[in-house]
Amino acid sequence: MPPDLVLFDCDGVLVDSEPVTNALLVENLAARGLQVSHDRVIDLFVGGTIAGVAQTARDLGATLEENWVDLIYAEMFERLAQEATPVLGVPSVLDALDAAGIPYAVCSNGPHAKMDVTLARCGLTQRFAGRIYSREDVPNPKPAPDVYLKAAADAGIAPAKCVVVEDSPNGARAGKAAGMRTLGFIADTAAEHLTPICDAVFDDMRALPGLLGLTSK
Fold it and tell me: What does the pLDDT average to over 48-53?
């Protein structure tokens, strides 16, 4: 049966922003004494918060400015405003949900300011207007379920009738902790990271309508 509400993570699910941000982190941390590969950045940081990146990087020996979080966000926003693109297939997925009368929202560990940049760049802001949720809106970020539970509560829909679409272990754990069916998008994530957590995994966003019980256009 199709869900009553679909909740999307933002980075790596709606917006193909992670290659941009991960490359930036590799460069930025190298300049501050921490050499990490692209793959290591994915393992350490994807699905977390920038404050968490700062703490982990310091623990691993990086010398970061006191205001590094503000500095990296400024660099990140500038690059994303120029380079972010929508994940292939996202517009058609949203079209299929609209045609079926199924509402959807975005729930991110990132701040609203970041989504203001990426969703606008990808032409998605209006499609999610009034249904854009950040870890800034809840007490605890993913892997806590707070942001997903808030989105469901605001929509008046029981968690069991929601589906979460995630691309990181932290996000998938949040979806499962919320009591929601959780689908893992593995286009850029190793399947072994999500398969043990998610109800199903898929590697092409154009397959999502079928997984949701809809007819893909």
Answer: 85
Q: CA 153, CA 34: separation in Å to the nearest integer?
A: 42
Q: Where do runs of H (alpha helix) occur along the chain?
A: 18-30, 38-45, 50-59, 68-83, 90-100, 112-121, 146-155, 169-177, 191-194, 208-211
> Looking at this protein, which amino acid is placed at residue 183?
L
Query: What is the pLDDT confidence band of residue 216, given thresholds at 50, 70 and 90?
Result: very low
DSSP 118-162: HHHHTT-TGGGTT-EEEGGGSSS-TTSSHHHHHHHHHHT--GGGE
Nearest one of 71, 70, 76, 59 to 17, comparing CA atoms: 76
Q: Which two tokens stand for residue 158?
A: 């029981």
Q: Is 188 exposed, middle or buried (0-12, 13-18, 19+ CB in 10 A)?
A: middle
The helix-helix angle for 18-30 and 68-83 (nearest 10°) equals 140
In sequence order, the β-bridge partners of residue 11 are 15
Question: pTM of the full predicted structure?
Answer: 0.84
